[in-house]
Specification:
Elements lengths: L13 H14 L5 E2 L11 H13 L11 H15 L8 E4 L1 H13 L5 E6 L3 H9 L3 E6 L10 H11 L3 E7 L11 H14 L2 E5 L22 E5 L12 E4 L2 H14 L5 H10 L3 H24 L13 E5 L7 H12 L1 E2 L1 E2 L11 E5 L4 H14 L5
Parallel strand pairs: 1-10, 3-4, 3-5, 5-6, 6-7
Antiparallel strand pairs: 2-8, 7-8, 9-12, 11-12
InterPro entries: Aminotransferase_I/II_large (IPR004839), AspAT/PAT-like (IPR050596), PyrdxlP-dep_Trfase (IPR015424), PyrdxlP-dep_Trfase_major (IPR015421)
GO molecular function, one term: transaminase activity
Keywords: Aminotransferase, Pyridoxal phosphate, Transferase
């Protein structure tokens, strides 16, 4: 009999389970529209595709340095200068197999078993599961209107007192999943300064940078060099399946991360690195996709409340609407399954993001096309019970 480790006993990623069922239905010929996962509706940029084709024709795709291709790391450093007017030594940049690998590398390099790390609730469920699987203590900090839907020094202090721990790490995402929150520069600086004063490492998840709509977009690098930055080509660059991301590290953390990466991943895929380097030049094409996301957002900001699904947080960034489903259910998991079964629209139960209150919420991704947004909400309008 196989013995299964306790560390593997993590909560399922329900969005992925919903996606799997949606895929099965689509393969069976059902007209499924998926608003369940953050999968851009736009393909990878043409420049990235062309670079990958040429590389494949050359026939020599192999390992790179564990830290990534020098040209890509240098280009990313230049991108920080261009987009954020900050100077970053390219030697501090590590290319990773998606942001997921970046989180693994950060947690393994920074923390020991039993250390406490704070995350926002609601927040991305993989944070919770990865931390738990690594034997770390997860401190979930409730965010809402009183905190500006982001972490604050005050909320972190309260959470430590309630949990009876001292934090070793704080993970803050901006723009955030599922709330769409964009943490302002003032808010981010307050958390950064708090962490510095308390000897806490701040990990700044910036994978939705590029997808903000009128709000300021601040990288923690604008505030100081002691945060760990995690980013990805999956969202703004429309390259989810390429599994390519990057980290920006304090200089003293580069070698420890490199050593762990050498054994866990050897290197990020060279083909994806080549495509990612080309994608950095595709700003015009990518800004068109961002404009499409903004149009979807504007449509859903009006449409969802009209359906009886009011917004729980502002839709300032990323491509998610986090909505209150209490008019229709107090079990968002069962409700999401029923929606898929009866309307062929896939949405994500809030239970993924908030173990305490998520049974009352749904998350809808608007990363697809406007036609999909219109059709999906038309189906929901016909299906949802009316109160009048």
């Amino acid at each position: 009999m196989i013995s299964i480790s306790k560390r593997s006993a993590v909560e399922p990623f329900h969005a992925m389970d919903i996606l799997a069922e949606a895929t099965r239905r689509r393969q069976a010929g059902r007209p499924v529209i998926s608003m369940a996962v953050g999968q851009p509706g736009h393909p990878a940029p043409q420049a990235a595709l062309e670079a990958a084709r040429k590389a494949l024709e050359g026939g020599r795709i192999g390992y790179t340095d564990a830290l990534g291709m020098t040209g890509l790391r240098q280009a990313l450093a230049e991108e920080y200068r261009r987009r954020h007017n900050v100077s970053v030594d390219w030697n501090r940049i590590v290319v990773t197999t998606g942001s997921s690998a970046g989180f693994n590398l950060a947690f393994l390099s920074l923390f020991d078993v039993g250390d406490a790390v704070a995350i926002a609730r609601p927040g991305y469920p993989a944070y919770r599961s990865i931390l738990a699987a690594l034997g770390l203590k997860v401190v979930e900090v409730a965010v809402g209107p009183d905190t500006g839907f982001t972490l604050t020094p005050e909320s972190l202090e309260r959470a430590q007192a309630e949990a009876g721990v001292r934090l070793k790490g704080v993970l803050l995402a901006s723009p955030a999943n599922p709330t769409g929150t964009v943490t302002t520069r003032v808010q981010l600086k307050a958390v950064y300064d708090y962490c510095q004063g308390q000897g806490i490492t701040l990990i700044s998840d910036e994978i939705y940078h590029g997808l903000t709509y009128g709000s300021e977009e601040t990288t923690a690098l604008e505030i100081g060099d002691e945060a760990v930055i995690i980013n990805s080509f999956s969202k703004y660059y429309c390259m989810t399946g390429w599994r390519i991301g990057w980290m920006v590290l304090p200089q003293e953390l580069v070698r420890p991360v490199e050593c762990v990466a050498q054994s866990l991943y050897i290197s990020a895929p060279e083909l994806s690195q080549i495509a990612a380097l080309a994608a950095l030049s595709a700003t015009v094409e990518l800004e068109h996709y961002k404009a499409a996301c903004r149009a979807n957002r504007d449509f859903l900001m009006d449409r969802l409340p009209a359906l009886g699904l009011p917004l729980l947080s502002p839709m300032d960034g990323a491509f998610y609407a986090y909505v209150d489903a209490t008019r229709f259910t107090n079990d968002s998991m069962a409700f999401a399954k029923k929606i898929l079964a009866e309307t062929d629209v896939a949405v994500t139960p809030g239970r993924d993001f908030d173990p305490a209150e998520g049974h009352l919420a749904l998350r809808l991704s608007y990363a697809g096309t406007m036609a999909e947004m219109v059709e999906a909400t038309d189906r929901l309008e016909k299906w949802l019970p009316r109160s009048d």
